[in-house]
Amino acid sequence: MGDVIDATDRMDSLFVPRVVFDLIFFIWVGILLFNINIGLIVDTFSALRDRREDRLMKLKNDCFVCGYQRSAFDDLGGTYNFDKHVNHEHNMWNYLFFIAYLNKKDPTEYNGVESYVRNMLHNEDLNWVPVRTSW
Questions:
Q1: Do 8 and 22 touch, CB atoms closer than 8 A?
Q2: Is the dihedral of CA 65, 68, 73, 79 positive or negative?
Q3: What share of the chain is helix, strand, coil (3-state, %, to 5)?
Q4: Are 102 and 117 in contact (CB under 8 A)?
Q5: Among 12, 118, 123, 131, which has the minimal tally of Cβ within 10 Å of its Cβ?
């Protein structure tokens, strides 16, 4: 910027307008635009943090497979335990391992359930997953 604007002396008649221009330029570019950019960055990171916290809460309190919430199990009482349900009965990794197993296994060796699930996966149909039917 200094190469484009000529240097001025204090005795020059354009000195005061030049000082005003330089101050306005400094305030506009140096402060306002910088703060706008910082504000956008901070807002973006806070939105990302909020989405991450929502995902973690959903993963902690909802069954990934059937969709039932922890509160539904707590309301039933007795032998119903949400953590047991999520870790043993509907462990999401077991479903993933089953799909990987089906992909590795020779299709001519499938049993009835494996053929059914493989057909459903091929058609992108997830009705084989026990959604809202785990009771």
A1: no
A2: negative
A3: 65, 0, 35
A4: yes
A5: 123
